[in-house]
Specification:
Mean pLDDT of chain B: 90
Distance between the termini of chain A: 27 Å
CATH topology of the domain at 35-45 and 77-218 in chain B: Rossmann fold
Number of helices of chain B: 7
Oligomer: heterodimer
Largest sheet of chain B: 6 strands, mixed
Shape of chain B: globular
Helix content of chain A: 55-70%
CATH architecture of the domain at 35-45 and 77-218 in chain B: 3-Layer(aba) Sandwich
Number of strands of chain A: 21
Bound molecules: adenosine-5'-diphosphate, magnesium ion
Number of strands of chain B: 10
Strand content of chain A: 5-15%
Shape of chain A: elongated
Largest sheet of chain A: 9 strands, mixed
Low-confidence stretches of chain B: none
CATH superfamily of the domain at 35-45 and 77-218 in chain B: P-loop containing nucleotide triphosphate hydrolases
Strand order of the largest sheet of chain A: 17-18-16-19-15-14-20-13-21
Chain lengths: ~850, ~230
């Protein structure tokens, strides 16, 4: 007999009879697959749309020249003039972000040089005075259109903002309002496809003015003559490199995408690991369901074996069943995942500030590779989970009519073996936790998490066995004979009950681990915020809908704010982003003397901020944030190298301070040094100290009133900003909570499903209990006790495992991913609530099975056989 | 010690319409306290149905079943549970031990359900196991026992609570003739020693021979009594 002939009687028909359990299993697999799919798709879509924008803006450029820190000096262009001589071109551009005045949406602004633009980017004008006149227009005409104070918009942008040729558009850039007139609309082709059309084009000089970048360029796109050999291209690249001033570098345009990819990698890997754990719960379900099927169908399996079916065929049937569950569950999961990803992208709502990528509305990109990988992961996990039950089935002897009981008791002896295996896994976890990160990722940390979680699952049979050995006298005295019935049943169906316990353990441990980590993190951030956010007011350029702030406040704005009555000190913070070995980091600056006198910066070695900052200012030294120190493996006394237009600057590190606002890592230097290196004015934000006795809210109103009509500012009071910081923190971890909630719900469904299966399977025994004089209430009580035992065992194991996970998350994974030191805090209230919550939920899950059990008619149950 | 039993004009059928099966039809008889009656008849004649009625697991469509003078149909659920714990005990063809409990735990369960302490129930259960010749097997699980041994555990369980009425439904139906004979002897001995009323359903005339009287059932009707 072949697998084909056996599938129907052994797998398909029983599954139909046992619909609820199979549906739950499918759902379990689906949730896991949906989670990893959604994370991968959302992340991939953001990156894909970013990458598409990068490509669209790069046009025909082979290389892009950009600054390693901040922007390029305009004279860089002259140094590349020789390219024209060989039939190439160097095309300058400003690329920055502004807000629309009407809707507060983020829009990219590309400042172009009308004369050379056509060499690199394509623009298809679809609506302009020229078009109306001539019937067609090419780029050279478009170039002539761009006068000061005008811009060109894309068709989708024109539609979204109700614009046509001649209308005016308000933009907020560099904290200032600007009004520009639309002179043309371009079709969605070429550069207009960037950011899904949320891009406008203006004249280079115009853009420099808009963003306070006079004499500066953001990028120079290099077009090489066609038909060059790879060799000569490489040679040209080298020549371009040598032509460049200090602090500028040349690379493929896609370099920008790679940088962003690096930025979001830790974030993505962390989320994906969480998703994989959800999938682990799903895999447990597959294992459980198939094992139950095998146990139930032992007699049938024995019969078909006696009729000539090979052990291999029986094995095949159950493996196939597992694969089928995997395929259906994963397919369902893909669907759910796509919906989830859509919701996530919608939530990102035009700005992916969490992912540090301010691109406009990323569109869902259904990457076939991602879909196939998620699907494959789900199927493979299901097949792997089906292996053990399938082997079990293959071992059934022909015509054996062994009862379930015999197998269960035989299984009991495997509890110690599992426990030993668990110990081995824990030891492996301990070793893995001590390893260095791999390529900047906590690969071994995640390995340790998986070892701990799998080990805890393997401890479940031992836990159930121990519960089965609890002394009977006190149990019976405290809870009545029903407790002994529950105890025996728990132990008698060890393979099922321990899987239910394992699933609960798994889900709860992840929740506890993440809760302790997030709670500790939050506590640490709260303390850090109260230590560092000492200024009375904080001023930054308005950020519109995105919540993030773009651009710089001009010097006039700083002077204006400083002149408002009641303001004592102003510390302008100015930052640019820079690259070190391809890894992005931030170079920040402030007035160290103001910070030393008024604020605090918590240094890791406990030295007073005042001493360190004043010494750093005097000696031209830098201070670095903890994430920077961890990421680049440096510490106090080492040298940091900062790229600058004046050539690489080597600065001594005067101290390492804790910082939870930025995981790229920050090197901070005094404002004077910064300005002499980078020649930048203005500020990214201002910290303001008020004269004693000044009311912050009043001062805030005064600042806003003074700026009205001149600068678009966002002003937070201290109280306000602290709240805002925590709001952003909580928002960041909302996804995590949702995932944990799903895992717990799935595990509780598992308890429900285990109990219901046990009740249905033990109709005869329950009937017998009734014959022996157990009351209806007694039967219900026994089921509830069993549920409570599952809940208690799962909770205890889950809490213990969760504590271990919290340790790994805090000290290994977070430290290695982001470089943050987090002080562990045990949220006793939350843990107690989780424990009681799970217990109550398991009891609730027992209600329906208990009712089903109580309905058992003893006479009928006994007649069945 | 034994209870008297009176079955008066009892009928019980299953299903409705064309597929209706009448399992018992107008059955009446009385049993004296301490009697040992065999219920003899082929498979499907209604023996189990009758035993279920006597065990208060089922109620008749018509007629009354009185045990120790009490009408079983009038029991409240609580009284029913109590009756099953104290008055009646049953032994089945398939032994019906709880597979998740060992011999001792199986035997003491009815005692615990009746409110005995674990210590007291253990002592009584050990005695009962000794009585059926299973000393030393207290910790064995059902799957570790032979059919005959399992049936002995079931009998020990039935007798541990000192019932007044013992119902045995084909107790030898799943045993070879030698072990079957030993089990029958055990039932007969306990009946003699304890003086409880015993009703044993069987389809085998040899098994019925150990009883002091025989009731013959055929298609749900009682055949005229032959002593
Ligand atoms: N729950 C039931 N539903 C339908 N028919 C039943 C049920 N229980 C017994 N019967 C029928 O009643 C008849 C008597 O059954 P039973 O008392 O089990 O006979 P016996 O024990 O003598 O073999 C049989 O025909 C049987 O099929
Ligand atoms: Mg029968």
């Amino acid at each position: 007999m072949s697998v084909r002939h056996l599938s129907l009687p052994l797998a398909v028909r029983p599954a139909r009879r046992d619909r609820l359990r199979f549906l739950l299993t499918l759902f379990g697999v689906a949730v896991g697959v949906a989670t990893i799919t959604a994370i991968a798709l959302a992340n991939g879509s953001v990156l894909a749309s970013f990458s598409a924008s990068v490509d669209a803006v790069a046009g025909k450029a082979s290389y892009t020249v950009s600054s390693d820190a901040g922007s390029l000096p305009e004279e860089t262009l002259n140094r590349l003039a020789w390219l024209r001589g060989i039939g190439g071109a160097a095309v300058p551009a400003i690329l920055d972000t502004a807000l629309t005045k009407d809707t507060g949406d983020v829009v990219e602004v590309l400042g172009i040089d009308p004369l050379s633009e056509a060499l690199v980017r394509e623009h298809a004008v679809s609506q302009s005075k020229e078009v109306r006149r001539a019937g067609a227009a090419d780029l050279s005409r478009l170039a002539q259109l761009l006068e000061p104070g005008t811009l060109v918009v894309t068709e989708p942008f024109a539609r979204a903002h109700g614009l046509a040729v001649g209308s005016e558009l308000g933009l907020v850039a560099g904290a200032r309002d600007h009004v520009l007139r639309v002179v043309a609309v371009v079709a969605s082709r070429g550069a207009a496809e960037s950011s899904a059309g949320s891009i406008v084009f203006t004249d280079l000089a115009n853009a420099q003015e808009l963003f306070g970048k006079k004499g500066r360029l953001d990028r120079i796109d290099i077009v090489l003559p066609e038909g060059l050999s790879t060799e000569s291209r490489t040679r040209l690249e080298e020549e371009i490199r040598t032509s460049l001033p200090e602090g500028a570098s040349v690379g493929r345009p896609s370099r920008r995408t790679e940088t962003v990819e690096r930025l979001v990698r830790s974030f993505r890997v962390n989320l994906t690991a969480l998703g994989l754990i959800a999938l682990l719960v799903g895999a447990f379900f597959v294992y459980n369901t198939l094992l139950v099927s095998v146990l139930r169908r032992r007699t049938d399996i024995g019969t078909v074996r006696a009729l000539g079916a090979s052990a291999r065929a029986v094995f095949g049937v159950f493996l196939l069943e597992g694969a089928l569950l995997g395929v259906l569950g994963s397919a369902l999961g893909l669907g759910l995942g796509i919906l989830l990803a859509k919701a996530a992208l919608f939530a990102i709502g035009g700005t992916a500030t969490q992912l540090y990528v301010p691109t406009a509305s990323p569109r869902l990109f259904l990457s076939p590779v991602t879909l196939a990988l998620s699907f494959g992961t789900g199927v493979v996990a299901s097949i792997l989970s089906a292996l053990a039950p399938a082997l079990e089935a293959a071992r059934v002897a022909p015509a054996s009519s062994m009862r379930t009981g015999s197998l269960e008791t035989a299984k009991r002896s495997s509890a110690p073996r599992f426990a030993l295996l668990a110990l081995g896994l824990f030891a492996a976890a301990a070793v893995a936790a001590r390893q260095e990160p791999l390529a900047g990722l906590p690969v071994f940390g995640f390995l340790a998490v998986f070892c701990v979680v799998a080990g805890a699952g393997l401890l479940a049979p031992l836990a159930v066995t121990v519960a089965g050995r609890l002394p009977q006298r006190p149990l019976a005295r405290l809870f009545g004979p029903e407790a002994l019935i529950a105890q025996a049943s728990l132990q008698g169906s060890l393979s099922r009950t321990s899987v239910a316990v394992a699933a609960l353990t798994l889900a709860l441990s992840m929740m506890v681990g993440v809760a302790v980590m997030v709670g500790s993190f939050r506590g640490t951030v709260v303390r850090w915020v109260s230590d560092t956010l000492r200024a009375d007011l904080f001023v930054s350029p308005a950020g519109g809908k995105s919540g993030a702030s773009f651009g710089r406040l001009p010097d006039e704005a700083i002077a204006l704010v400083a002149g408002v009555p009641g303001i004592a000190h102003v510390d302008p913070y100015l930052a640019i982003s820079a690259l070190r070995n391809g890894a992005p980091f931030t170079i920040g600056s402030g007035r160290f003397e103001v910070l030393a006198a008024n604020g605090t910066l918590p240094f890791l070695d406990g030295r007073p901020a005042k001493d360190v900052l004043l010494a750093a200012r005097a000696g031209g030294e830098a201070v670095v944030s903890e994430p920077y120190a961890v990421k680049f493996g440096v510490t106090t006394g080492d040298l940091v190298e900062l790229p600058s237009p004046k050539g690489p600057q080597r600065l001594r590190i005067a101290g390492v301070y804790s910082d939870y606002s930025n995981d790229r890592g920050t090197v901070s230097i005094d404002r004077d040094l910064f300005q002499s290196l980078y020649g930048l004015t203005g500020a990214s934000s201002l910290a303001i100290w008020l004269a004693p006795g000044t009311d912050p809210d009043l001062a805030r109103m005064r600042v806003l009133a003074a700026a009205k009509g001149r600068f678009a500012l966002r002003v937070h009071t201290n109280v306000n900003l602290r709240k805002e910081v925590l709001r952003i923190f909580d928002q960041t971890f909302a996804v995590t909570w949702a995932l944990e909630g799903v895992a717990i719900a799935v595990a509780l469904l598992g308890v429900f499903h285990t109990l219901l299966a046990l009740v249905l399977e033990r109709r005869r025994e329950i009937g017998l209990l009734r014959v022996l004089g157990t009351s209806v209430e007694g039967v219900k009580k026994a089921i509830r006790y069993e549920a409570a035992a599952l809940g208690i065992l799962g909770s205890l194991l889950g809490l213990a495992t969760g504590a271990a996970l919290a340790h790994l998350l805090i000290h290994v994974i977070n430290k290695q991913s982001f470089g943050w030191t987090i002080a562990t805090e045990w949220p006793a209230g939350f843990l107690a609530a989780a424990f009681t919550g799970v217990l109550l939920a398991t009891l609730l899950a027992a209600e329906r099975p208990a009712t089903v059990a109580a309905r058992t008619d003893p006479a009928r149950a006994l007649k069945e056989e | 010690m034994g209870a008297n039993v009176a079955v008066e004009g009892v009928s019980r059928g299953y299903g409705a319409g064309a597929s209706r099966v009448v399992a018992l039809e107008d059955v009446s008889f009385t049993l004296a306290p301490g009697s040992f009656t065999a219920l003899l008849g082929p498979s499907g004649c209604g023996k189990s149905t009758l035993l279920h009625l006597l065990g208060a697991l089922d109620r008749p469509d018509a007629g009354r079943v009185l045990v120790a003078g009490r009408d079983l149909a009038r029991f409240s659920p609580g009284e029913e549970d109590l009756y099953r714990r104290r008055t009646v005990a049953t032994v089945f063809q398939f032994f019906n031990l709880l597979p998740t409990m060992n011999a001792l735990e199986n035997v003491r369960l009815p005692l615990l359900l009746d409110g005995a302490s674990v210590a007291k129930a253990d002592a009584r259960a050990k005695e009962a196991l000794l009585e059926v010749g299973l000393e030393g097997r207290e910790r064995s699980f059902p799957y570790e026992l032979s059919g005959g041994q399992m049936q002995r555990v079931a009998i020990a369980r039935a007798l541990s609570g000192s019932p007044e009425l013992l119902l045995a439904d084909e107790p030898t139906g799943n045993l070879d003739s030698k072990t079957g004979g030993q089990v029958l002897e055990l039932v007969a001995r306990l009946h003699r020693e304890r003086g409880l009323t015993v009703v044993m359903a069987t389809h085998a005339a040899e098994a019925a021979a150990v009883a002091t009287s025989v009731l013959r059932l055929r298609d749900g009707r009682l055949e005229p009594r032959a002593s």
